[in-house]
Write a structure and sequence with these properties.
Strand content: 15-25%
Number of helices: 17
Structural class: alpha/beta
CATH class of the largest domain: Alpha Beta
Strand order of the largest sheet: 4-19-10-3-9-7-8
Helix content: 25-40%
Number of domains: 2
Amino acid sequence: MPSTTSFTVNGRTYRPPAVPIVVICLDGCANEYLDAALLRGRMPNLSRMILSGWRGLARAAMPTFTNVNNTSIVTGRPPSVHGIGGNFFYDTHSGEEVMMNSSRFVRVETIFPSAAKAGRKVAVVTAKEKLRDIFAAGLITEGGIAFSSEKAADAVKETHGIGGVTEIVGPKPEIYSGDASVYVLKAGVALLERGMADFLYLSTTDFMQHKYAPEAEEILDFHAQIDAELGRLLELGAVVGFTADHGMNAKQKADGSPNVIYLESELVEQFGEGFRVILPITDPYVVHHGALGSFAQVHVPEHVSITEVQAWIQAKQGVTECHDRETAARLMELPSDRMGDLVVASGRDVVLGRTPEHHDLGALEGGLRSHGGRYEEMVPLIFSRPLSLEHAALAAGDPRNFDIFDFTINGTR
């Protein structure tokens, strides 16, 4: 029987029931994707889960990127606390642009080591290898499991808590595919079936959402596959919490070309050299988005007025917000020491770039769909059991996607 020993992490106490706990982050899953699949009868297990449980919306952390929100989910805290304010940032001390895909950048612990110490069999499966180091921090030494679809064949007991993943789950999938996400849920099912885990976090990749609109047959098929694995998790008696790290929107003009503001080029033309625009969506997976998202950090050269630049950016068509560092840190709950002088967010159908030369748009497959701004902030929040009165009241207010473990563990009945 799963342990019911409570544990406290980052100011939150978790009191798990004596059943398997599964939290799913379906990367890039805007509510429109679920609606399209549910209306067409492609997700019958999710439909039953909603009828017997609870469905609503939650607000994601800003910026609406993968590393930011996954780290918030697994720590239960916003970026201002855990320190991951993007996939990428400019370290003003070293003068380097740095990828934040390592646990060394995370300023608080995840909930996983404490859950393992409390007697839970913890397993974390992610599609993208870039997240595994963050998820695995402190977990393997406590007897937990952490591996990715992308590098499933490389998992070994000493560093991943498990070996022979491909024998248990199947051959590793191509990362640029829907299979990479389905594999994550299949792995969760396999670990639960074998009694190897009873406390799971399953985090997918958004390749399919970047590539396809909600009504496309390809993504409807994808969601049907996700639903089949979801059904197996429910059959195994798991309490399931379901959310996303961010939504997804088309970011293109009527002719299908990307709707881009090349912010660094335009700033240099207007004010002169010395600007550095950081795009925190930047990561190794360029086929997804070409490093174009709806959020940017701007480092302003000393000889230029920040206030003047802010006013100029804010007046641009397609820009929805432009804040100074302190204001953005307060409004968006961001770590101020890993931010630019200005923070910029763009409209629903607009992305921000550096210069035309900086982005390899030839790597994009199909039209541009991306995320990062306010218009990808609202995400699904679904539970397989009804909520308690206390948590139902919280859900009626301003729930966050990083409340998911608290709701799933403490708030379902």
